[in-house]
Amino acid sequence: MTAAAPAPRVEEPAPLALANTIWIDRHGVHDALAELDYVRIWIRAVGKRLPMSPALDATDGVCAETAGRLIDLRDAIRRLAADATKDSRDLVASPVPDTATAVSLINAASAANPVWPELSFTRRHVLTRHDAWSAKAFSEALITVVARQTVELATSPRWALLRACEAPACAHFFIKEHRREWCSALCGNRARVARHAQRQHR
């Protein structure tokens, strides 16, 4: 029996949080977005971190079609990330065949819904920016916003810092900042244990 999908990891930029919804355990590779309940959890978790207008119900309107669009965007991001990092992890390779297809999918998602920046201010007149939209559901607008953030990330200097985590049984990508070597402390421990075991074997 497969374990439940891990909680969404939202410390990375939203496009990478989406890319990292593929996970591995001893039973094999799993797609967290294959479950609608998880799609709702992911949208709620990531939506809280994006500069978007608050929605009464962030998961309203989430259906199989929404999940399919999110998966298409995720797979396109993973193709670009794999190309950028020369990722050799065949087990978790994206089903998107090439960069051109990935770019087309991302552009289509970016143009799918009207989303625009709006300015607001608090009682202390602190100005803040958030995205507003005319889409029927928050989830539809969120997919568009994540696609646009993918465009921004892939054309920014941070894209050069993108790495594929090389810890055993990891499918994730991360932005390498400071002396960071793995996507998480858990992966760091796994990698150190694997290296130690390899040295002992030799």
Automatic annotation (TrEMBL):
Transmembrane segments: none annotated. Pfam families: ABATE, zf-CGNR. InterPro entries: ABATE, ABATE_dom_sf, Znf_CGNR. Residues 162-200 form the Zinc finger CGNR domain. It comes from the Bacteria. This is Zinc finger CGNR domain-containing protein. It comes from Mycolicibacterium agri.
